[in-house]
Amino acid sequence: MPNRSTGVTHFIKSLKRYNWSSDILFWTIVLLIFTFKEGTFYFDNFITQGISVFFYIVLIYFNLYYLIPVYLTEKRFWLYCLLLILAVMLLTPIQILILYLRFSGYEESQQYILSLQQWMFITNFIYTGGSTIFKIVSDWAKHQREKKELEKQTMQSELRFLKSQINPHFLFNTLNNLYALTLKKSEKAPEIVLKLSEMMRYMLYECNEKYVPLSKEVAYMQNYIELEKLRQGKGADMSFEIHGEIKDQKITPLLLIPFIENSFKHGVKNTLQDGFVHITMIVEEQFLQFEVINSKPALAPKNEHNKSGGIGLVNVQRRLNLIYPNKYELQVNNTPNTYQIILTLTMDEGYY
Asked: Which of 88, 162, 310, 337 lies 20 to 30 Å from 173, alpha-carbon distance?
Protein backbone atom coordinates (compact mmCIF):
# COMPACT_ATOMS: atom_id res chain seq x y z
CA MET A 1 0.00 0.00 0.00
CA PRO A 2 1.44 3.42 -0.89
CA ASN A 3 2.54 5.70 1.91
CA ARG A 4 0.50 8.90 1.54
CA SER A 5 2.92 11.05 3.53
CA THR A 6 5.77 9.79 1.40
CA GLY A 7 3.68 10.55 -1.69
CA VAL A 8 3.03 14.12 -0.53
CA THR A 9 6.74 14.59 0.24
CA HIS A 10 7.61 13.25 -3.21
CA PHE A 11 5.03 15.59 -4.75
CA ILE A 12 6.50 18.67 -3.02
CA LYS A 13 10.10 17.71 -3.86
CA SER A 14 9.15 17.08 -7.50
CA LEU A 15 7.61 20.53 -7.77
CA LYS A 16 10.66 22.17 -6.17
CA ARG A 17 13.25 20.62 -8.43
CA TYR A 18 11.18 20.82 -11.60
CA ASN A 19 12.39 23.08 -14.39
CA TRP A 20 9.38 25.34 -14.87
CA SER A 21 10.65 27.56 -17.71
CA SER A 22 9.28 25.43 -20.56
CA ASP A 23 6.01 24.83 -18.71
CA ILE A 24 5.49 28.55 -18.05
CA LEU A 25 5.96 29.19 -21.75
CA PHE A 26 3.53 26.38 -22.63
CA TRP A 27 0.76 27.58 -20.29
CA THR A 28 1.23 31.18 -21.40
CA ILE A 29 0.65 30.08 -24.98
CA VAL A 30 -2.41 28.07 -23.90
CA LEU A 31 -3.80 31.09 -22.05
CA LEU A 32 -3.29 33.34 -25.06
CA ILE A 33 -4.97 30.80 -27.36
CA PHE A 34 -8.01 30.62 -25.07
CA THR A 35 -8.10 34.41 -24.80
CA PHE A 36 -7.91 35.01 -28.56
CA LYS A 37 -10.17 32.11 -29.58
CA GLU A 38 -12.92 34.62 -30.47
CA GLY A 39 -10.49 36.71 -32.48
CA THR A 40 -10.39 39.76 -30.19
CA PHE A 41 -8.47 40.46 -26.98
CA TYR A 42 -10.49 41.54 -23.96
CA PHE A 43 -8.76 42.00 -20.63
CA ASP A 44 -11.80 40.67 -18.74
CA ASN A 45 -11.76 37.55 -20.90
CA PHE A 46 -8.02 37.23 -20.27
CA ILE A 47 -8.61 37.18 -16.49
CA THR A 48 -11.51 34.74 -16.81
CA GLN A 49 -9.52 32.35 -18.96
CA GLY A 50 -6.56 32.74 -16.58
CA ILE A 51 -8.72 31.46 -13.71
CA SER A 52 -9.74 28.41 -15.74
CA VAL A 53 -6.16 27.73 -16.85
CA PHE A 54 -5.01 27.97 -13.22
CA PHE A 55 -7.37 25.16 -12.22
CA TYR A 56 -6.25 23.08 -15.22
CA ILE A 57 -2.67 23.50 -13.99
CA VAL A 58 -3.51 22.53 -10.40
CA LEU A 59 -5.42 19.42 -11.46
CA ILE A 60 -2.93 18.30 -14.10
CA TYR A 61 0.18 18.69 -11.92
CA PHE A 62 -1.55 17.09 -8.95
CA ASN A 63 -2.34 14.19 -11.25
CA LEU A 64 1.12 13.96 -12.80
CA TYR A 65 3.20 14.29 -9.66
CA TYR A 66 1.01 12.74 -6.99
CA LEU A 67 -1.84 10.55 -8.22
CA ILE A 68 0.07 8.80 -11.02
CA PRO A 69 3.32 8.00 -9.12
CA VAL A 70 1.60 7.13 -5.83
CA TYR A 71 -1.41 5.18 -7.12
CA LEU A 72 -1.39 4.45 -10.84
CA THR A 73 2.29 3.45 -10.95
CA GLU A 74 1.67 1.17 -8.00
CA LYS A 75 -1.08 -0.57 -10.03
CA ARG A 76 -3.94 0.68 -7.84
CA PHE A 77 -5.94 1.64 -10.90
CA TRP A 78 -9.45 1.83 -9.44
CA LEU A 79 -8.33 3.85 -6.43
CA TYR A 80 -6.47 6.16 -8.81
CA CYS A 81 -9.63 6.67 -10.92
CA LEU A 82 -11.70 7.35 -7.82
CA LEU A 83 -9.24 9.94 -6.48
CA LEU A 84 -8.98 11.58 -9.89
CA ILE A 85 -12.75 12.00 -10.07
CA LEU A 86 -12.87 13.27 -6.47
CA ALA A 87 -10.15 15.84 -7.22
CA VAL A 88 -12.10 17.15 -10.20
CA MET A 89 -15.35 17.16 -8.19
CA LEU A 90 -13.67 19.11 -5.40
CA LEU A 91 -11.90 21.77 -7.49
CA THR A 92 -14.57 22.37 -10.12
CA PRO A 93 -17.08 23.93 -7.63
CA ILE A 94 -14.28 26.15 -6.29
CA GLN A 95 -13.54 27.27 -9.85
CA ILE A 96 -17.24 27.98 -10.43
CA LEU A 97 -17.49 29.90 -7.15
CA ILE A 98 -14.51 32.13 -8.01
CA LEU A 99 -15.91 32.87 -11.46
CA TYR A 100 -19.34 33.51 -9.96
CA LEU A 101 -17.93 36.03 -7.47
CA ARG A 102 -15.85 37.66 -10.21
CA PHE A 103 -19.05 38.64 -12.02
CA SER A 104 -20.80 40.05 -8.95
CA GLY A 105 -23.40 42.52 -10.10
CA TYR A 106 -23.74 40.79 -13.48
CA GLU A 107 -26.64 38.47 -12.88
CA GLU A 108 -26.84 37.30 -16.46
CA SER A 109 -23.15 36.34 -16.48
CA GLN A 110 -23.52 34.57 -13.13
CA GLN A 111 -26.46 32.56 -14.40
CA TYR A 112 -24.46 31.65 -17.49
CA ILE A 113 -21.58 30.40 -15.32
CA LEU A 114 -23.97 28.29 -13.24
CA SER A 115 -25.37 26.77 -16.40
CA LEU A 116 -21.85 25.62 -17.36
CA GLN A 117 -21.21 23.58 -14.20
CA GLN A 118 -21.57 20.21 -15.91
CA TRP A 119 -19.50 21.31 -18.90
CA MET A 120 -16.71 22.65 -16.62
CA PHE A 121 -16.56 19.34 -14.77
CA ILE A 122 -16.33 17.38 -18.03
CA THR A 123 -13.69 19.76 -19.40
CA ASN A 124 -11.57 19.54 -16.24
CA PHE A 125 -11.85 15.76 -16.23
CA ILE A 126 -10.93 15.49 -19.94
CA TYR A 127 -7.86 17.73 -19.57
CA THR A 128 -6.70 15.94 -16.40
CA GLY A 129 -7.35 12.48 -17.85
CA GLY A 130 -5.62 13.57 -21.05
CA SER A 131 -2.51 14.37 -19.03
CA THR A 132 -2.54 10.74 -17.83
CA ILE A 133 -2.56 9.48 -21.41
CA PHE A 134 0.21 11.92 -22.30
CA LYS A 135 2.25 10.72 -19.31
CA ILE A 136 1.81 7.06 -20.22
CA VAL A 137 2.76 7.63 -23.87
CA SER A 138 5.76 9.84 -23.03
CA ASP A 139 7.01 7.37 -20.39
CA TRP A 140 6.64 4.52 -22.88
CA ALA A 141 8.58 6.47 -25.53
CA LYS A 142 11.27 7.32 -22.97
CA HIS A 143 11.48 3.67 -21.92
CA GLN A 144 11.87 2.60 -25.55
CA ARG A 145 14.66 5.12 -26.11
CA GLU A 146 16.44 4.01 -22.95
CA LYS A 147 15.95 0.37 -23.91
CA LYS A 148 17.45 0.94 -27.35
CA GLU A 149 20.34 2.91 -25.87
CA LEU A 150 20.98 0.15 -23.34
CA GLU A 151 20.83 -2.48 -26.08
CA LYS A 152 23.26 -0.44 -28.16
CA GLN A 153 25.67 0.01 -25.25
CA THR A 154 25.41 -3.68 -24.34
CA MET A 155 26.00 -4.72 -27.92
CA GLN A 156 29.00 -2.41 -28.31
CA SER A 157 30.45 -3.69 -25.04
CA GLU A 158 30.01 -7.26 -26.22
CA LEU A 159 31.57 -6.45 -29.58
CA ARG A 160 34.58 -4.87 -27.85
CA PHE A 161 34.89 -7.97 -25.70
CA LEU A 162 34.67 -10.28 -28.70
CA LYS A 163 37.22 -8.20 -30.58
CA SER A 164 39.56 -8.21 -27.59
CA GLN A 165 39.41 -12.01 -27.68
CA ILE A 166 40.03 -12.19 -31.42
CA ASN A 167 43.23 -10.13 -31.57
CA PRO A 168 45.19 -12.08 -28.92
CA HIS A 169 43.84 -15.28 -30.47
CA PHE A 170 45.58 -14.64 -33.82
CA LEU A 171 48.63 -13.12 -32.22
CA PHE A 172 49.07 -16.19 -30.03
CA ASN A 173 48.86 -18.58 -33.00
CA THR A 174 51.29 -16.56 -35.10
CA LEU A 175 53.81 -16.20 -32.29
CA ASN A 176 53.66 -19.96 -31.79
CA ASN A 177 54.59 -20.41 -35.44
CA LEU A 178 57.38 -17.86 -35.16
CA TYR A 179 58.72 -19.52 -32.01
CA ALA A 180 58.88 -22.90 -33.78
CA LEU A 181 60.82 -21.41 -36.70
CA THR A 182 63.30 -19.57 -34.48
CA LEU A 183 64.07 -22.84 -32.67
CA LYS A 184 64.93 -24.31 -36.06
CA LYS A 185 66.91 -21.15 -36.94
CA SER A 186 64.83 -20.91 -40.10
CA GLU A 187 65.55 -18.21 -42.68
CA LYS A 188 61.79 -17.65 -42.86
CA ALA A 189 61.71 -16.08 -39.39
CA PRO A 190 62.60 -12.48 -40.48
CA GLU A 191 59.93 -12.51 -43.19
CA ILE A 192 57.38 -13.75 -40.68
CA VAL A 193 58.35 -10.93 -38.31
CA LEU A 194 57.79 -8.41 -41.13
CA LYS A 195 54.38 -9.86 -42.03
CA LEU A 196 53.45 -10.03 -38.38
CA SER A 197 54.34 -6.36 -37.87
CA GLU A 198 52.06 -5.40 -40.77
CA MET A 199 49.25 -7.43 -39.23
CA MET A 200 49.81 -5.89 -35.81
CA ARG A 201 49.75 -2.39 -37.29
CA TYR A 202 46.39 -3.15 -38.85
CA MET A 203 44.96 -4.61 -35.63
CA LEU A 204 46.22 -1.76 -33.46
CA TYR A 205 45.45 1.24 -35.63
CA GLU A 206 42.70 0.19 -38.03
CA CYS A 207 40.51 -2.28 -36.15
CA ASN A 208 39.31 0.25 -33.58
CA GLU A 209 36.90 1.62 -36.17
CA LYS A 210 33.39 0.23 -36.58
CA TYR A 211 34.04 -0.47 -40.25
CA VAL A 212 37.21 -0.67 -42.31
CA PRO A 213 37.76 -0.65 -46.06
CA LEU A 214 37.32 -4.13 -47.48
CA SER A 215 40.65 -3.69 -49.26
CA LYS A 216 42.50 -3.43 -45.94
CA GLU A 217 40.71 -6.45 -44.54
CA VAL A 218 41.69 -8.40 -47.66
CA ALA A 219 45.32 -7.25 -47.31
CA TYR A 220 45.30 -8.47 -43.71
CA MET A 221 43.99 -11.88 -44.79
CA GLN A 222 46.59 -12.08 -47.55
CA ASN A 223 49.34 -11.40 -45.02
CA TYR A 224 47.98 -14.15 -42.82
CA ILE A 225 47.90 -16.57 -45.74
CA GLU A 226 51.47 -15.64 -46.65
CA LEU A 227 52.53 -16.40 -43.08
CA GLU A 228 50.94 -19.82 -43.34
CA LYS A 229 52.63 -20.48 -46.67
CA LEU A 230 55.99 -19.58 -45.16
CA ARG A 231 55.35 -21.86 -42.22
CA GLN A 232 53.99 -24.81 -44.21
CA GLY A 233 56.42 -24.68 -47.09
CA LYS A 234 56.07 -24.59 -50.86
CA GLY A 235 54.34 -27.95 -51.06
CA ALA A 236 51.18 -26.84 -49.27
CA ASP A 237 48.05 -26.56 -51.46
CA MET A 238 46.71 -23.10 -50.58
CA SER A 239 44.87 -20.61 -52.76
CA PHE A 240 43.04 -17.31 -52.31
CA GLU A 241 41.08 -16.11 -55.33
CA ILE A 242 39.22 -12.80 -55.56
CA HIS A 243 36.55 -12.26 -58.20
CA GLY A 244 34.98 -8.88 -58.75
CA GLU A 245 36.17 -5.36 -58.04
CA ILE A 246 37.01 -4.11 -54.55
CA LYS A 247 36.22 -0.40 -54.44
CA ASP A 248 35.11 1.55 -51.41
CA GLN A 249 33.13 -1.22 -49.70
CA LYS A 250 33.44 -1.38 -45.94
CA ILE A 251 33.19 -4.30 -43.54
CA THR A 252 33.52 -4.78 -39.81
CA PRO A 253 37.17 -5.64 -39.05
CA LEU A 254 38.47 -9.16 -38.40
CA LEU A 255 35.16 -10.72 -39.40
CA LEU A 256 36.42 -13.22 -41.98
CA ILE A 257 39.82 -14.18 -40.65
CA PRO A 258 38.55 -16.79 -38.11
CA PHE A 259 37.27 -18.90 -41.01
CA ILE A 260 40.70 -18.78 -42.66
CA GLU A 261 42.56 -19.47 -39.41
CA ASN A 262 40.44 -22.54 -38.69
CA SER A 263 40.77 -23.84 -42.22
CA PHE A 264 44.58 -23.75 -42.01
CA LYS A 265 44.56 -25.28 -38.59
CA HIS A 266 42.55 -28.29 -39.78
CA GLY A 267 43.14 -28.32 -43.51
CA VAL A 268 46.93 -28.43 -43.57
CA LYS A 269 48.33 -28.70 -40.06
CA ASN A 270 46.45 -31.88 -39.12
CA THR A 271 46.66 -33.54 -42.54
CA LEU A 272 49.70 -35.65 -43.26
CA GLN A 273 49.38 -35.45 -47.04
CA ASP A 274 47.12 -33.99 -49.71
CA GLY A 275 45.96 -31.28 -47.32
CA PHE A 276 44.49 -28.17 -48.92
CA VAL A 277 42.85 -24.85 -48.19
CA HIS A 278 40.98 -23.08 -51.00
CA ILE A 279 39.54 -19.62 -50.38
CA THR A 280 37.32 -17.76 -52.83
CA MET A 281 35.87 -14.28 -52.49
CA ILE A 282 33.26 -12.85 -54.86
CA VAL A 283 32.56 -9.12 -54.64
CA GLU A 284 29.71 -7.40 -56.50
CA GLU A 285 29.08 -3.86 -55.31
CA GLN A 286 27.87 -4.33 -51.71
CA PHE A 287 27.39 -8.06 -52.04
CA LEU A 288 30.07 -10.39 -50.71
CA GLN A 289 30.32 -14.15 -50.96
CA PHE A 290 33.15 -15.71 -49.02
CA GLU A 291 33.89 -19.41 -49.38
CA VAL A 292 36.50 -21.47 -47.55
CA ILE A 293 36.93 -25.20 -48.08
CA ASN A 294 39.63 -27.30 -46.49
CA SER A 295 40.58 -30.94 -46.18
CA LYS A 296 40.13 -32.92 -42.98
CA PRO A 297 42.24 -35.69 -41.49
CA ALA A 298 40.90 -39.09 -42.49
CA LEU A 299 40.72 -40.33 -38.89
CA ALA A 300 39.44 -37.13 -37.28
CA PRO A 301 36.24 -37.42 -35.25
CA LYS A 302 33.23 -35.95 -36.97
CA ASN A 303 33.05 -32.94 -34.63
CA GLU A 304 36.81 -32.37 -34.39
CA HIS A 305 36.67 -29.24 -36.50
CA ASN A 306 34.11 -27.58 -34.25
CA LYS A 307 35.82 -28.57 -31.00
CA SER A 308 39.26 -27.34 -31.94
CA GLY A 309 37.95 -24.21 -33.57
CA GLY A 310 38.25 -22.43 -30.24
CA ILE A 311 36.66 -19.05 -29.76
CA GLY A 312 37.13 -17.98 -33.38
CA LEU A 313 34.05 -19.48 -35.03
CA VAL A 314 31.85 -18.86 -31.99
CA ASN A 315 32.84 -15.20 -32.02
CA VAL A 316 32.35 -14.66 -35.73
CA GLN A 317 28.84 -16.16 -35.56
CA ARG A 318 27.99 -13.90 -32.63
CA ARG A 319 29.42 -10.81 -34.33
CA LEU A 320 27.43 -11.54 -37.48
CA ASN A 321 24.24 -11.72 -35.43
CA LEU A 322 25.04 -8.45 -33.68
CA ILE A 323 26.32 -6.34 -36.55
CA TYR A 324 24.58 -7.79 -39.61
CA PRO A 325 21.19 -9.10 -38.45
CA ASN A 326 19.12 -10.33 -41.41
CA LYS A 327 21.93 -9.31 -43.77
CA TYR A 328 23.92 -12.50 -43.93
CA GLU A 329 23.61 -16.22 -44.54
CA LEU A 330 26.17 -18.69 -43.26
CA GLN A 331 26.20 -22.18 -44.75
CA VAL A 332 28.37 -24.95 -43.26
CA ASN A 333 29.02 -28.22 -45.09
CA ASN A 334 30.81 -30.76 -42.94
CA THR A 335 31.72 -34.01 -44.73
CA PRO A 336 34.08 -36.82 -43.67
CA ASN A 337 36.84 -35.41 -45.92
CA THR A 338 36.16 -31.67 -46.20
CA TYR A 339 34.85 -28.74 -44.24
CA GLN A 340 33.28 -25.84 -46.14
CA ILE A 341 31.77 -22.52 -45.11
CA ILE A 342 29.95 -20.16 -47.47
CA LEU A 343 29.15 -16.71 -46.13
CA THR A 344 26.98 -14.32 -48.11
CA LEU A 345 26.84 -10.80 -46.74
CA THR A 346 25.37 -7.41 -47.58
CA MET A 347 27.96 -4.82 -46.59
CA ASP A 348 25.90 -1.63 -46.98
CA GLU A 349 25.77 -0.97 -43.25
CA GLY A 350 25.62 -2.71 -39.90
CA TYR A 351 23.30 -2.45 -36.94
CA TYR A 352 25.39 -0.25 -34.67
From this structure: 337
Element (DSSP H or E) covering residue 193: helix 189-205
Cα 318 to Cα 314: distance, rounded to the nearest angstrom:
6
Beta bridge mates, 328: 345
What would the DSSP string read from start to end of 213-274? EHHHHHHHHHHHHHHHHHHH-TTSEEEEEEEE---S-EE-TTSSHHHHHHHHHHHTTT-SSS
pLDDT band at 242 (very low <50, low <70, confident <90, very high): very high
pLDDT on residue 189 = 74
Distances from the Cα of 189 to the Cα of 177, 182, 215, 234, 326, angstroms:
9, 6, 26, 15, 43
CA dist., res. 269 & res. 163, Å (int) = 25
- Dump pLDDT digits (tens) for 307-320: 444 456 777 788 88
Report the predicted TM-score, pTM, of the whole model to 2 decimal places: 0.53
